[in-house]
Amino acid sequence: MSIDTKAKYAESHEYARLEGAEVVVGISDHAQAELGDIVFIELPAVGKVLVKGKTFGTVESVKAASDLYMPVSGTITAVNDALQGDPALINKEPYAGGWMIKIRPSDSAEMDALMSAEAYAKAIGEA
To answer: Are the C-beta atoms of residues 114 and 16 closer than 8 Å to each other?
Structure first.
């Protein structure tokens, strides 16, 4: 199980990785492994403003459908359109080609409330 050490993690298994002024959001390697083969993803439109903890989309696998939750509040600046044609990218490379959205955070202090990579590893029993 891989963990992106540059990212912070929500209890609901979304990661948030600061890249310049934006935050890249997706689900952790642990989460995609638990879901199994991902077959569909629904993501919000660019420009949408969402609050931390609110649903920003849905991911469906052969096992189940799961809501996706905002790890931090902000405005959607980009959506990974490649996932519409190949949602399995989330399974193959959750931290690279399988990212879901990019946001411009409205409160950078919210990043501090997320788990560090080390804390997340402990939370999922990988440490």
So the answer is: yes
Q: Which of 57, 53, 62, 72 is nearest to 110 (CA)?
A: 72
- Across the beta sheet with 38-42, the strand order is 38-42, 55-61, 65-69
pLDDT digits (tens, 9 = 90+) for 68-84: 999 999 999 999 999 99
CA distances from 71 to 35, 37, 52, 62 (A): 19, 23, 5, 25
The closest of 62, 63, 56 to 27, measured between CA atoms, is 56
In one-letter notation, the amino acid at residue 110 is: E
User: Which letter does DSSP use for residue 106 in this model?
Assistant: S
Q: Please, where are the H alpha helices in 26-108?
A: 29-35, 82-85, 89-92
**Predicted TM-score (pTM) above 0.90:** yes
Assign a CATH topology to domain 8-104: OB fold (Dihydrolipoamide Acetyltransferase, E2P) (2.40.50)
Sequence-distant (6+) residues with CB within 8 A of 65 are 58, 59
The kind and range of the H/E element at 58 are strand 55-61
